[in-house]
Amino acid sequence: MPWPIPPNPTEKHTVEFQFQFDWQAAINSIPYLAKGIPYTLMISFGGLAIGFVLGIVFGLLSINKNWFLRWPATAYIEIFRGTPILVQVLFIFYGLPDLVGGPIDPLTAGIAAIALNSGAYISEVVRGGVQSIDKGQTEAGLSLGLSRSQTFWNIVWPQAFRRMIPPLGNQAIVSIKDTSLFSVIGVGELVRQGQVYIANTFTAFEVYFVVAIMYLAITLSLSLILRLLERRGVASA
Predict the structure, then answer these.
(1) Number of Cβ atoms within 10 Å of the Cβ of 222
(2) What is the CA 95 to chain-centroid distance, rounded?
(3) Residue 56: which residues within 8 A CB-CB, separation 6 or more?
(4) Closest by Cα among 198, 195, 128, 113 to 166
(5) CA angle at residue 82 from 76 to 85, to 5 degrees?
(6) CA distance 223 to 233
(7) Which of 15, 51, 86, 228 is the most exposed place for a label (fewest CB within 10 A)?
(8) Whole-angstrom distance between the N-terminal and C-terminal Cα of the chain?
(9) Consecutive sets of 10 residues in the chain, 237 residues long: mean pLDDT of each?
(10) pTM, full prediction
């Protein structure tokens, strides 16, 4: 019986890898994945609305001359900017119920996490926008007989807000993408819908491809709206 011929180590072996994108599977997943879009938008824009209010409050407090107002605002900003949003939502969803003595709805936890996280970043946007306005604007308002409050809200704030639009838009896009992390607490947003669909169809590549396209469509639409607002703001300046 002849001995088997050992393989030649210098011989090149070609491994055939066959993959064909299943367009039908991708198309079939769209109606199911679309059910997650309202949750994604609800969490992101609901949280951003609250975060914008928090950002104005803590952003203005962070430049206040009184240290007992400035320090708590600075602490809030640094804590929520310095910790991952995934840790924040896990703490709210799993940790806070031990403190409040009752469960927290996943949707509520998601909105709260976006609000607190985006509020910290928006605070810095507000601080930078206000401080970018020349002090001569305030002096001009006071010389016209306006109070400091009137000078700020009628002269300083409109100019500062126009400069805030690009970074606020960036934060909105970041917050929309951050909602993808909330699948870990069972929120039925886009990624969670995709996970459930994949568990039944085993078409991970196609489904996550569609999820990515949906996120891209949302963020590009928002970017277009923000560019129009920015141009209108510049034109009216």
Answers:
(1) 16
(2) 22
(3) 122, 126
(4) 128
(5) 95
(6) 15
(7) 15
(8) 93
(9) 57 62 92 95 96 96 91 96 96 92 92 97 96 90 88 92 92 95 92 94 93 96 89 63
(10) 0.87
